[in-house]
Protein 1
Amino acid sequence: MFRLFSQTRRCLQVKRALKRQEWPLRPAHLTAAAQQASFSTASVEHLSRSDSWPKDVGILALEVYFPSQYVEQVELEKYDGVEAGKYTLGLGQKQMGFCSAHEDINSLCLTVVQRLVERSRLSWDSIGRLEVGTETIIDKSKAVKTVLMQLFQDSGNTDVEGIDTTNACYGGTASLFNSADWVESSSWDGRYAVVVCGDIAVYATGNARPTGGAGAVAMLVGPEAPLVLERGVRGTHMEHVYDFYKPDLASEYPMVDGQLSIQCYFRALDQCYSIYRKKIQSQWQKVGVDKPFTLEDFQFMIFHTPFCKLVQKSVGRMMLNDFLAAPNPDTQSGLYKGLQAFRYSAQQLAGSRIGAFSYGSGLAASLFSMRVSQDAAPGSPLDKLLSSLSDLQTRLDARKQVPPEEFAEIMKQREETHHLVNHTPQGSKDDLFPGTWYLERVDDKHRRQYARRPL
Amino acid sequence: MFRLFSQTRRCLQVKRALKRQEWPLRPAHLTAAAQQASFSTASVEHLSRSDSWPKDVGILALEVYFPSQYVEQVELEKYDGVEAGKYTLGLGQKQMGFCSAHEDINSLCLTVVQRLVERSRLSWDSIGRLEVGTETIIDKSKAVKTVLMQLFQDSGNTDVEGIDTTNACYGGTASLFNSADWVESSSWDGRYAVVVCGDIAVYATGNARPTGGAGAVAMLVGPEAPLVLERGVRGTHMEHVYDFYKPDLASEYPMVDGQLSIQCYFRALDQCYSIYRKKIQSQWQKVGVDKPFTLEDFQFMIFHTPFCKLVQKSVGRMMLNDFLAAPNPDTQSGLYKGLQAFRYSAQQLAGSRIGAFSYGSGLAASLFSMRVSQDAAPGSPLDKLLSSLSDLQTRLDARKQVPPEEFAEIMKQREETHHLVNHTPQGSKDDLFPGTWYLERVDDKHRRQYARRPL
């Protein structure tokens, strides 16, 4: 399983409905409560602090990057000589974005971080943590994070915590958790955290190839966020499994046991949902609310998406869990009742709870939730966040469609060139979106040089 | 640069003086303050909590693993045909531990974690987080952490957060910071965190080979620790540099620019120390103490050790920093005055401040400090921690000395076999310490199977 947690179509539709707008974010609290501590020289005394965690820690802003080219899955079915509908209906896939030989994990992350900072009008020294979650390893030692430090160079800000985090598609989620923990801890110095999730998922020719993808997301994390991470409820499930892994280090392609991976995904979903429910019900009981948590208590659900069909099945799976957990299930309530919660329009996002299930093969999985702020008025943090994502459909529409023959040729080129030294990637850079970073050259010592397309 | 932060000899001597003792750790607070939150079903309400961070978050227990064999650097000098003293005096190296073909990063971490849990008499379900910092990547996707979940199997505990963290030798430090932040955050559920730092550092024949090493450390992190992480003072420096990196994914060997790496190490040390001083002086000023922080305010210093000579130079470097930062430096005070602080005997560890400088090429570096608890009485947490490490010298002495010819042969064997499939590592397992996990077999799908030598 390869992609970061993906949003359901419905969530994208919500964002799409709102128009694009750029805005400056207000500076974070630069006087850290963390520093209001007692200390001494002669003897080393205990530091104590009674401040509470900052309010509403979560996601303040989001930036999404995807490649400028894609292949139609309908055409890929024909090209691969499989029955019609195998990819589109069987897997629920429609279009697959993919990277040219000019792009690698570093260039993707450079683009998305610079875009986040520029569009949010942040200063580079307002960032105190930057962490990357990825399984697209092009160097076993040097973190993508260190490559991103090039962006900070002019600001002189090098005091930026966090490095790279890896386990299949779970790395981004772990980074988000780490960053939120940082903001609530004594380590926080009042500045923002930036969480980057990025991957280039490519497969050898065969069954798994249509489930590839590529992209990167950068999230700005701090207090007083419109998407607040709910506290003390997340459920995690970790296990030793060989369902999807990358032991052939010289290849971009993973080893995949597709059927095993689907079983693991569902098992992890069951376990995480069970723990999540237990924790949230325990919180409710403390404030006098005694009812079982069900899928209806989520107004939206986000799933890690190995392929789209699996997400549809996952919703059903969670309803089944509710049914099994209910002491006296109302069998009259109808199969689709639970789906009512997914029929929201844009305005109803405010105040809702969004569940998120993240899965990384190997395996690591968590179910957590975010609460959307109540204030959806124009100019509110929520309005700004949604507005910033309103160009997603336009950007998706602006991608270039590439025929399967060309797609296969580019995949072959990546296979043959992705680890060459003394190498300049071939082909035109003109198809990249404006402002995209790309790999310019790999020198004789494997050092990678990047450049940026003008905005 | 490859090894996790290493302790200076002096620290080892302190521990050596105390006798070995096993002890049960008391269970952590299983009722998490984090869950005392208000919540509701109908609308999703803000979670508020006024509890302060837990007291004295830091390292409760430590476990160290190193291979059972080593090569004498004096002999390696002869074997390599270099001038006498090049490795021993020039680099300050004495003996180099190394792994046989039976060991990989997974087996090292399995051993050290099981040893920590067994010797501390912990239950596997008292652990709520487990994180691994490593740059020894044998799978680009599947985290070492997931392999360690095998140890939890019988307990049924799968709700264990944290995955792997990577940037050269800095991964372990980042994991320690993440885990301490977790304990202070709303994510904490009252259980322990375990931080694992492990690496197998091997170099191609040539200048860098004598700076190799291998080992793993597991740390138990929680509140009321005898080694407390000091709050709000750490200084971090991150930069984009190609001083040491591992772009040849099929090889165990890195690319190294030794001279550049030493420059980077010192630059990072200067930067981190400068930030650390600024932060701690600002804390002091808030409580009315107005004096510059100098090296004398650390009673002990721990350095990341690429090779031992660099650490000696680093101490001098920090004194130079003090001198340059002083408004009216007392040039009469003598070069060695600052070193007085390092002449402590075992009993004086209590109450002291230990500075720690961690460096990972690429680069990521931090200077942070730990405060040692005041209570050193028999049975105190500090006494228990030190006692548990008192067998280090005995264990070092019990290692088997291997002649350079055999060392070179084993290195060659690793080169040729470390990524084979359908492979059983050759040679005898009898030299491994009792209780050591080892790689038993890699099957045709790259899946790794481990076994353990009896205790």
Protein 2
Amino acid sequence: MSVPEAPAPLDGSPATSDAEIAEARAATATTRRPTVAAMEDILFQRLPVLDHGFVRVVDYMGDDAAVVQAARVSYGRGTRQVSQDAGLIRYLMRHWHTTPFEMCELKLHVKLPIFVARQWIRHRTANVNEYSARYSILDREFYLPAPDQVAAQSSANRQGRGDGFGSEAAARVIDLLREDAERCYADYLWLLNEDGGGSEDGAGEDGAGEDGAAAPDADRPGLARELARMNLTLNTYTQWYWKTDLHNLMHFLRLRADPHAQYEIRVYAEVIADILTRWVPITAEAFRDYRLEAAQISRSGLGVIKRLLAGEAVDQKSSGLNPREWRELMAVLGRPA
Amino acid sequence: MSVPEAPAPLDGSPATSDAEIAEARAATATTRRPTVAAMEDILFQRLPVLDHGFVRVVDYMGDDAAVVQAARVSYGRGTRQVSQDAGLIRYLMRHWHTTPFEMCELKLHVKLPIFVARQWIRHRTANVNEYSARYSILDREFYLPAPDQVAAQSSANRQGRGDGFGSEAAARVIDLLREDAERCYADYLWLLNEDGGGSEDGAGEDGAGEDGAAAPDADRPGLARELARMNLTLNTYTQWYWKTDLHNLMHFLRLRADPHAQYEIRVYAEVIADILTRWVPITAEAFRDYRLEAAQISRSGLGVIKRLLAGEAVDQKSSGLNPREWRELMAVLGRPA
Amino acid sequence: MSVPEAPAPLDGSPATSDAEIAEARAATATTRRPTVAAMEDILFQRLPVLDHGFVRVVDYMGDDAAVVQAARVSYGRGTRQVSQDAGLIRYLMRHWHTTPFEMCELKLHVKLPIFVARQWIRHRTANVNEYSARYSILDREFYLPAPDQVAAQSSANRQGRGDGFGSEAAARVIDLLREDAERCYADYLWLLNEDGGGSEDGAGEDGAGEDGAAAPDADRPGLARELARMNLTLNTYTQWYWKTDLHNLMHFLRLRADPHAQYEIRVYAEVIADILTRWVPITAEAFRDYRLEAAQISRSGLGVIKRLLAGEAVDQKSSGLNPREWRELMAVLGRPA
Amino acid sequence: MSVPEAPAPLDGSPATSDAEIAEARAATATTRRPTVAAMEDILFQRLPVLDHGFVRVVDYMGDDAAVVQAARVSYGRGTRQVSQDAGLIRYLMRHWHTTPFEMCELKLHVKLPIFVARQWIRHRTANVNEYSARYSILDREFYLPAPDQVAAQSSANRQGRGDGFGSEAAARVIDLLREDAERCYADYLWLLNEDGGGSEDGAGEDGAGEDGAAAPDADRPGLARELARMNLTLNTYTQWYWKTDLHNLMHFLRLRADPHAQYEIRVYAEVIADILTRWVPITAEAFRDYRLEAAQISRSGLGVIKRLLAGEAVDQKSSGLNPREWRELMAVLGRPA
């Protein structure tokens, strides 16, 4: 099998300009397909996330009624009043009848830091086209946390963050992240022998960085892009088209809009949760009730609740739960642990 | 986990009436999304297949330009003339860059015999909602082959059909298939204690069938639907919503529009191949050139072609291919085996 | 693309004989891979299900320790006492960290009625090789429910069964199912022009059935197998190899070992649940605690529990739940609705 | 839903020590399952790739005979001589009957640079547990290309590399990559307030880097790991367990063992291709003949071959192929373009 060169001169960044977005939004057509006015309102527009990221709705397929329509193929015909549609959607959600939700699709254009993209891509039931750094040059954009997001390793949660830093300590962290990202990017341009635009970047003490960012050198070959990219830091922004169905989208949100998800992916999930509400409001509400704000109670946890309801005094020791499970159950029930 | 009863009275067949289709087609809206006029023309309409089956386009997402758009996110920005779009799509197809084709979706409503559905469902990367015979009663419709499709087991191909039967023998086969299907269906209704509508069905010599189809008996409980259905024959029609992306749709067509696919699924694939041409004409043409009408030549086969091109006389014995591979290669090259 | 005939004479049923099983069980080898003695004990043996079905463990990969091993790659190295392994597995299960469970695989050989196979195949994240009725002739075996499983359509649950029939009515149902299945099978053999073995089958009043099952007729061509099979009823047995990972296996069990699953698939799930306990006992116990016997409580349901715990008297009207949700919640809490 | 802290003290690198490997290899058991001696020989051992990477076989399921066994379930029973098994495997491969190959599984432990992991993870039909930098601290190891791999951007192939650099220029590139990776890593440790082990790293002119790598500072909180990791460069090594079935493994190899794949992932694919030959030698040979060294010839390409075989002189202009397709076809046929 042979996969040689791709065709034609395709260069530069895919970042969509304001003018292109305006032009795309101005073009309309008539369709017989289900259409959601609240989605048309935001179609193609950049919804900002973090310091340089965004989410753009590129296309969607289906709506709340399409979920109902697919479910009714399975269950047979019925009356179709709105109240019953909502009841049916809530029933499907409650009982994990997930296939009707797979009948709707959402396609997004997302700009995000590489370390966030690495978490995101673990959701396998989705379609992705990512900007290729083998093929093109990445833009000079990297994520730097806002000062109030600079926080210590959590002592309670082994994979999260705990107390914030003071403003001075936070500033020092951010400066260090910026310096390293800028130097690495300037050296990336030097390796590629590309023009950095005479910008402020890469003015490090390092010789290569210094003359690198200045201007390309006609006598020097540029390093292969697929190699040069390895010099970039993980907060460099990438972008992709990402498409998934409504069921898998909610699964993504359940994991990534959770308070224990990393802040930098959670803010994307929150923007997408707002899109969900625009797109399929009935489904979105059922999702909040039966997933996001619901609780899974174990067999032992149910036993504890029954004993409490029977008026028994139960503490961790007598509960049969281990201390962590006890704390989790008390948190769900809004009681002191 | 508890999955109790589904809500509300949902009964009867989901078969969409002409009036419902006309009503759905009359409703239009304005959208900013990509729209394909040739698809809007056929949207919701039944495209007939076999004796009682159909394919209906229920929704679609994307078009040829959406494939290009997704590929350009990967490869970077470029000029966008139509000629280049076609070149890029052909390049993607030729080199198995499949992800941009995953950015388009097609949703179909299909009515098909159960034995065809059993082949079809093996394509796992798709979303399905099938009419549930646990929940509803299947219609009295079963597939009977047309006389010219009644054929003997192939002697050359262990999984296909060979010579046709004469018209008399074919008629006898069809009669037998009809009688068994009708009797089983009449007994299905009798088991359910449902009214067969006073129809001609089930007038067998079998006592149960006889009184079964006549009229429901108020004093007799109906057998659970989930049990009664086991009495139906595999040519009974079912229906489903089926949604897949453009890449997986073409994979389906490559296997099922192939001359060696069973006739009864191939006719569905052919109708869908026509839909493909309406929907994404550039992709459809590239698919024909590089997949449907292309050939995979093995290392040994390439060796034979090189020797033939060098003017050498090669026969099966000297080719190093086994007899079957030799025949296949000669067929591809249009030469006598 | 061309898919011509498959090679070699491959005929007859794949049903594995007792002698073949004994021979396979007698052959052993030494391995460095994880091995589970309780699985080796039952390897290759038929575990009977329903009247003619079975489940056979054909192969397995991994054990409880392999789940822990994969999780520790993610979380880093730690101490490895058994007690901590169990704690880690329970933590993974409780918090839906599902990927370590995907690192184990189970391969089964299953014989099952076609209508059960049609439910089972909806679990898409699995690998399947099914006996092909295009290629081979199905055995004369069909599922007939035991008398105590013959039940009326449930009035409470629109997709389930309710009260049993009396023994006389049940016998009449079973007789009808048997007669239709036998006649259809005899006619299937007649269509194929195959010998029915001089058996009792197909002794219907129907001419074709009558002379069909008797003996093949040298002057008559056999109908293509891919066509003849459509005459079989949905309770005919088929068989397949089915392989899935531990995570998806538990998802299958959660849906199919549930009391609301159809009895005929639930009995397979129950046999597989026993295999699970043999194979990965720690995981199996965590699965029971946190999935099978756990409950998902909605936001509103949690509100009701909190009010009850605060000593408030709550009934359905004041609960904010609809009657069905109220009943479900009371059932979970073991209280009268 | 609440996903709080993971249990227990799990710290440090998961890199498996030589002693642990020797201990694991020393433990054996008896099994009835299919066993492959050539795989047992290398089980658990590190097969080195690049400067710090490796591939280790952690487990496997099935062998060539398991592919045959699964295919025979579909096709029915037949004779089982080795020659016929090879013939059946070659038939399955030639005609894209892929499901029997899905019945075997391979589980690997892989250490690889992050930019390689980002390509690799695009193969979605696989199971992955990756070392989590939210949870643990990454080792101070980054990929630096060997001098002969330092090459210019290809002018012919827009996503590959072309001519090599001279040794002096290559050394300058490598030095720059090393300096940036080391400084970023030292600053990562400083951000975490972790001890760098008094090593040479991070001796940059940058103040933070300088005092950072020296020793942890008891008065300063460590930055959350999930944040600090963003400062690492993309050539930092990560590791994961990766499991896939034989069909998808071959698909991975077809794309990644291809000469046009990036060198840094191709060397992993080549090691895995050697493992394939050990594990399933018959399948591996068929894979080479019908996939790796086969060619897909388009409808137009077949037309050109037929004309050439008929003795016609064909050049690009008269071929109907565009220049790129013409070059590709001539390359496949071993003729000058």
